Amino acid sequence: SSLSVADAPTMNDDHLESFTLGVRSTLTSLGLTGLRNVRGMAMHAITGACTGLRSLQLARSPVPALSMDGITRLRSLGVLSVTSAARTEATSILEVVRGVRGLRKVHLYDVGPLNDHGLHMLVHHQRSLTSLVLGPCGQLSQDYLATAIGRLPELTCLSLAGCSMLSDSALCVIAESLPKLRELLLTESDGFTDTGIYALENCTQLRQLTLHPVRNVTAAGLAVLC
Q1: Cα–Cα distance, 62 to 54 (Å, whole number)
Q2: 223: CB partners within 8 A, 6+ apart
Q3: Which candidate in 52, 70, 189, 219 could, as Cys together with 47 as Cys, close a disulfide (CB 3.0–4.6 Å)?
């Protein structure tokens, strides 16, 4: 079963814990959005009791990263999404993520600065990822970003935000290393030119491409992908 709780300003840890544990035996997907009064204590109980969880999605819910360490017990977890979590830090979350085996999708957006060390932890421990969403990526060195992403050959969906200086060479490495890529989203990334776009011809499975902005890419560059 699936449980989604959104924009419930009066719900606190006690409410969430009792509400969730009532369906713990069948719960496979849990989504929490906009729960401003949840501080993380409920997460320990949820991850300890709802062992069949396959998908956990947190958005605009200030759950501290230390309260998420219980997800390492979720052996069936395949999808983890954390967005706009004001009390978390990207590095702290990735410390937890590396202890989870078998993740297929990891979405981390607006959870604090992501650096090369954090990305290394993610890639080293989650080689079977098929979907990866990261942002903002402004503190990542672009050469390492490309090299690290290239170690995830099963990726079919890649979304990177805030890689302002993503270069042609970095885009070439990504394109050559991800033969199964079907969706590529690059936002706030304008360091590449037509040369980088030409490299995407190597992604023969590519079906969806989103680029914003495209200041240094010409219509001729985009035409090769049509």
Answers
A1: 21
A2: none
A3: 70
What is the rounded distance in angstroms from the CA atom of residue 185 to the CA atom of residue 189? 10
116 φ, ψ (degrees, to nearest 5): -60, -40
Distance CA 149, CA 201 (A): 18
pLDDT digits (tens, 9 = 90+) for 132-146: 999 888 788 877 888
Task: Look over the chain and give the mean of its residue pLDDT values, rounded to a whole number.
Answer: 85
pLDDT at 16 over 70: yes
Average pLDDT on 181-198 reads 89
Q: Which of 75, 67, 76, 74 is nearest to 95 (CA)?
A: 67
Q: How far apart are CA 51 and CA 30, in angstroms?
A: 12
Cα 23 versus chain centre, distance? 27
Taking phi over 0 as left and psi of -120 to 50 as alpha, with beta for the rest, 84 belongs to: left
Q: What SS3 class is residue 194?
A: helix
